[in-house]
From TrEMBL:
Belongs to the globin family. Pfam families: Globin. PROSITE patterns: GLOBIN. Residues 3-147 form the Globin domain. One of its GO terms (molecular function) is oxygen carrier activity. This is Hemoglobin beta embryonic-2. GO terms for cellular component: blood microparticle; haptoglobin-hemoglobin complex; hemoglobin complex. It comes from Parambassis ranga (Indian glassy fish). CDD domains: Hb-beta-like. GO terms for biological process: hydrogen peroxide catabolic process. Keywords: Heme, Iron, Metal-binding, Oxygen transport, Transport.
Length: 147
């Protein structure tokens, strides 16, 4: 069971309260698909991913970025039991989507970079520590139903 300090909780809820899901979700997913091109294989039905411009202007990718952030939202609302909150999502990624769980960490890193760029100097070391702890728990929970 993960323990959260009051400071960590307020940092995480504070970030999400002010996050523009459309901007951050799309930017993070685009970055993941461009920086780690093998992740594109899971989005074969999303249309044109031919190059970075195509990825950045693909409306299906932008919409899916928002969906991912709504997924993270679920973790924020269930910080004391992210594992249970993500059980179904983990089964989906494992058994139906067959997403290699190593990719969760790659997307998490892209999210960190995009959020850090957005927050600028307010992305302090304390903020980074809480944020990365949160994403590490998310990544672990998403990988739980793999076997
Ligand atoms: Ni992921 C669907 C959340 C990482 C590939 N993903 C979802 C959905 C949520 C979600 C929510 C929608 C589920 C539903 O429809 O019930 N995904 C998350 C989260 C992370 C993550 C929170 C990590 C932080 N997903 C990844 C990664 C990949 C990925 C790293 C592939 C590289 N996800 C998918 C695919 C779908 C998906 C593919 C289905 C898309 C569709 O609509 O066809």
């Amino acid at each position: 069971m993960v323990e959260w300090s009051e400071q960590e909780r307020s940092i995480i809820t504070g970030i999400f309260a002010n996050l523009d899901y459309e901007e951050i979700g799309a930017k993070a997913l685009c970055r993941c698909l461009i920086v780690y091109p093998w992740t594109q294989r899971y989005f074969g039905s999303f249309g044109n991913l031919y190059n970075a411009d195509a990825i950045k202007t693909n409306p299906n990718i932008a919409a899916h970025g928002v969906k991912i952030l709504h997924g993270l939202d679920r973790a924020v609302k269930n910080m004391d039991n992210i594992k249970a909150a993500y059980a179904e999502l983990s089964v989906l990624h494992s058994e139906k989507l067959h997403v290699d769980p190593d990719n969760f960490k790659l997307l998490a890193d892209c999210l960190t970079i995009v959020v850090a760029a957005k927050l600028g100097s307010s992305f302090t070391a304390d903020t980074q520590a809480a944020w990365q702890k949160f994403l590490a728990v998310v990544v672990s929970a998403l990988g739980r139903q793999y076997h």
